[in-house]
Design goal:
Structural class: alpha/beta
InterPro entries: Biofilm_reg_signaling, EAL_dom, EAL_sf, GGDEF_dom, Nucleotide_cyclase, PAC, PAS, PAS-assoc_C
Pfam families: EAL, GGDEF, PAS_4, SBP_bac_3
Domain PAC: 371-424
CATH topology of the domain at 618-856: TIM Barrel
Domain PAS: 298-368
Strand content: 15-25%
Shape: elongated
CATH architecture of the domain at 618-856: Alpha-Beta Barrel
Number of helices: 32
Helix content: 40-55%
Largest sheet: 8 strands, mixed, barrel
Number of strands: 33
Protein name: cyclic-guanylate-specific phosphodiesterase
CATH class of the domain at 618-856: Alpha Beta
Length: 857
């Protein structure tokens, strides 16, 4: 008894091994795969000797996971089926289900792909209904379900369709391209993929929506089919699975219709509507041509047919009013047929719809065209909008004169929605709604081409969330998904309109920035500021089911401009820079080019230094004197200087652009105005400087602030300075934008006594139209004209013109940059009476200015 127990266990184990199909057995399995040329669904990759196309790549992915080895068996379609029946082929992709095939082969359960059949023809061949196929030669695959369907269709409509049997879809297209056939029937994927190469287009004739499977010889390889079903069931529910990677790879040519099957069948129903509409068109044609005496009887028969056709059929007169409608039109408009007759479209549809319909009708009634077009129709009563495919052609009398039109319309709204859903799945991320990798790469290619032509810089920012996997592992994938959606929303708040934010995959996002400043230094600064702002947005606290998490990100930036780089280069470089950011401790930004990184670092240090300088009082004003022709002091111009504690005196040309780009020019400008006002008060009792004005340069960012006037008045009130001794210097470039608002602000300050000078006159947007309207006191001749005054006749002519203009407008004119006595003398001869420049004195601190002025006097 005891000795038999181990033996029984061994026998049971042996039987279990025989009755199961262990993975180590499947791992050595070789599958002979039937491959016929039907791209993009199935084709042979000759270089790698593997099945290719959507279904070929998908089977290869499954085989890689299951450990199968695939051996392709090239064959034509009919030979593939024969080889499967005879056992020369183990598995065949791209097989549509039918009762006959169910009897011969074994199918798995979950469809690998969806498709439908469609007729393709040359654009000049009008095939819009089954009746248009009468007498036509149509190429169709031998032994296919399409051939069987067309024979049944021809018999049902009583038309003679000449079917030309072919061994491949390519042969069918070649026959049409060569003029040996007038149409070809293929599946929708092959047709869309190849029609353009043969000069063919889609026709409205669609039929037979089908599910596509892998099949094996009857009763064989059941384990293989079971594993295919398991993989399909798993992968179709994962957005980042090999299934969707394969579809994405073939995305330029085909997109999996991830929609309920009933919508696919709705496409079949719509095709039936088109077929039925063709019947109506045929009867209307016969009605127009009929010359029988029994008109009343035939009309009654025709009305009976029209009322039972599942299409909107109508006749309009030359006055665009309805003369006949069938019951479907009456149902659409919610009125009896007899009430619709005599009415026009204005009584049923909104103005835009009427305009579109009227444009179609005019082409038919005025020019005798046959119109096939889509039109969106919005009802007046309900406001509902539906899209219809309308076929309209003229009705003629016995003399051939156009007396009206007949129209057949079918509702294609559901089909259009399905197409939109397919597009959404192909180009947008299902979780965040952002553009996906496919659309990102397409837009990046366009951005690089645009920058190459224009030379305007842009940037690619590769954003990776730090330690995202830790969040998924600790809180759950639900938290991870919610964080990705939240980060997408936050980033969109900062990305400009016209730029692209995309989800690249997993926890990675990519931003394409276009139209940065043409000056490289400024462009780098803009990119760095935007990247820092994105980091700040990402790092806001995230709460999920009571858990508090602070996300961070690492950002890599790669710049592009005129030099053309590839899409792959830009992605690779920005990703490398992102890894540099992670290596630097995460939650940081790095640029791909080390020299760019150094420039950004320098600009960042300069910006930080300006902030500290304002807090620590490192800035000071120097003053340059201004004199009249008699040698009397008439004013001073304040010029900002920065005495850095470590770097010494820093040039305004170096720090002013940084202040403007960072927005620090606003607090810096406020300080300059207040300091100048304080100096006015200090000098108010001095016998030499007490009555002269101080000129202060104003930036564009300052004057375009809404509170600019209040800031100036606040500085005057705060210091007690005399507004009549404060002169604000503007540049012409400030006046290009918001001219009216600028003039209003100047006038408001002018009422308080503040004066205005137009600096660098003649170098910018010079216009008499605005010049005469500005409340100015003075024009300043730019030093670029003064420098070559004695040698350049053009500069001399410009100076004379500016002086004459100032006199005609009753404005004083002062020349800046005067460095020699010869320049001063020439300016006097041209009529200029006021001067500023090194000839009269360099900019000096306030305490040194008085001694210098007295020395000059």
């Amino acid at each position: 008894m005891d000795s038999r127990v181990p033996r029984m266990h061994a026998i049971a184990l042996f039987l279990a091994l025989l009755l199961t199909e262990p993975r180590w057995v499947l791992a050595e399995q070789v599958l002979r795969v039937g491959v016929y040329e039907n791209p993009p669904k199935i084709a042979l990759d000759a270089e790698q000797n593997l099945p290719s196309g959507i279904l070929g790549d998908l089977l290869s992915e499954i085989a890689r996971y299951e450990g199968w080895r695939l051996e392709p068996v090239p064959c034509e379609w009919s030979d593939c089926l024969k080889g499967l029946r005879e056992g020369r082929i183990d598995i065949l992709p791209d097989v549509a289900e039918s009762p006959e095939r169910r009897a011969q082969f074994t199918f798995h359960q979950i469809p690998a792909l969806y498709s439908w059949s469609q007729v393709f023809a040359k654009e000049s061949t009008h095939l819009n209904s089954p009746l248009d196929l009468a007498g036509r030669r149509i190429a169709v695959l031998n032994g296919s379900v399409q051939a069987k369907y067309l024979r049944s269709l021809a018999e049902g409509f009583g038309v003679d369709i000449k079917l030309e049997g072919v061994s491949s879809f390519r042969e069918a297209f070649e026959l049409v391209a060569a003029g040996k056939a007038e149409g070809a029937v293929t599946n929708q994927q092959y047709g869309e993929y190849n029609a353009h190469d043969f000069g063919l287009v889609q026709t409205p004739l669609m039929f037979q929506p089908v599910k596509l499977f892998y099949v094996t010889p009857r009763g064989q390889n059941l384990g293989v089919l079971q594993r295919i079903d398991e993989r399909l069931g798993e992968w179709k529910n994962e957005a980042d699975s090999p299934y969707y990677h394969v579809l994405g790879h073939w995305g330029d040519h085909y997109h999996e219709p991830q929609i309920p099957l009933d919508l696919l069948w709705a496409l079949g129903v719509l095709a039936a509507l088109l077929l039925s509409a063709g019947v109506g068109v045929a009867f209307l044609r016969r009605k127009v041509r009929q010359k029988t005496r029994d008109l009343a009887s035939n009309e009654l028969r025709l009305n009976t047919i029209m009322s039972n056709v599942d299409a909107y059929i109508y006749i309009k007169g030359k006055d665009f009013r309805y003369q006949y409608v069938n019951s479907r039109v009456a149902q659409l408009l919610g009125m009896p047929e007899e009430q619709i007759c005599g009415c026009s479209d204005e009584q049923f549809f909104d103005a835009d719809t009427v305009e579109r319909i009227r444009s179609q009708d005019q082409r038919v009634l005025l020019f005798g065209e046959r119109v096939v077009d889509e039109v969106a129709q919005r009802r007046l009563d309900s406001g509902e909008e539906r899209t219809h495919l309308a076929v309209k052609q003229p009705l003629r009398d016995e003399q051939g004169e156009i007396v009206g039109l007949v129209g057949v319309s079918t509702d294609i709204t559901d089909r259009k929605r399905s197409e939109a859903q397919i597009h959404q799945l192909a180009f947008y991320d299902s979780l965040t709604g952002l553009p996906n990798r496919n659309l990102l790469l397409e837009r990046l290619d366009h951005a690089l081409a645009s920058a190459s032509r224009s030379g305007v810089p842009g940037a690619v920012m590769f954003i990776d969330l730090d330690k995202f996997r830790d969040l998924n592992d600790s809180i759950g994938h639900g938290a991870g998904d919610q964080l990705l959606c939240l980060v997408a929303e936050r980033l969109q708040l900062r990305v400009r309109e016209g730029d692209t934010l995309a989800r690249f995959g997993g926890d990675e996002f990519v931003v394409i920035i276009e139209g940065l400043d043409e000056v490289q230094d400024q462009a780098l600064f803009q990119a760095e500021h935007l990247a820092e702002a994105l980091l700040e947005l990402v790092s806001e606290v995230f709460e999920y089911e009571g858990n508090v998490y602070t996300p961070t990100a690492s950002i890599g930036v790669a710049m592009f401009a005129r030099q053309r780089h590839t899409v792959d280069d830009m992605i690779k470089w920005s990703e490398l820079a992102m890894y540099e950011a992670k290596a630097a401790g995460r939650n940081s930004v790095r640029f791909f080019d080390p020299s760019m990184q150094a420039q950004v670092r320098s600009r960042a240090q300069l910006e930080a230094g300006i902030r500290r300088g304002l807090e620590r009082g490192e800035f000071e004003l120097h003053y340059q004197p201004q004199y009249c022709e008699q040698g009397d002091l008439i004013g001073v111009e304040s010029l900002l200087r920065w005495g850095h504690p470590d770097m010494g005196m820093i040039s305004p040309a170096e720090f002013i652009p940084v202040a403007e780009a960072s927005g620090l020019i606003r607090p810096l400008g406020r300080w300059v105005v207040e300091e100048a006002c304080r100096q006015l008060v200090c000098w108010s009792g001095d016998s030499v400087l007490g009555g002269i004005p101080i000129a202060v340069n104003i930036s564009a960012m300052q004057i375009h602030q809404d509170n600019f006037v209040d800031e100036i008045l606040s500085a005057l009130n705060k210091t007690g300075a005399d507004a009549r001794r404060l002169k604000l210097e503007l540049t012409e470039s400030m006046l290009v934008r918001n001219v009216e608002q600028t003039i209003d602000k100047m006038r408001r300050l002018r009422k308080h006594g503040v004066g205005f000078s137009l600096d660098d006159f003649g170098t910018g947007f010079s216009s008499l139209s605005y010049l005469k309207r500005l409340p100015l006191d003075q024009l300043k001749i730019d030093q670029s004209f003064v420098r070559d005054l004695l040698d350049d006749a053009n500069d001399a002519a410009i100076v004379r013109t500016i002086v004459a203009l100032g006199e005609s407008l009753d404005l004083s004119v002062i020349a800046e940059g005067v460095e020699t006595h010869e320049q001063r003398q020439a300016l006097l001869e041209y009529g200029c009476r006021y001067f500023q420049g090194y000839l009269f004195g360099r900019p000096l601190p306030a305490e040194e200015l008085l001694a210098s002025v007295r020395c000059y006097s």
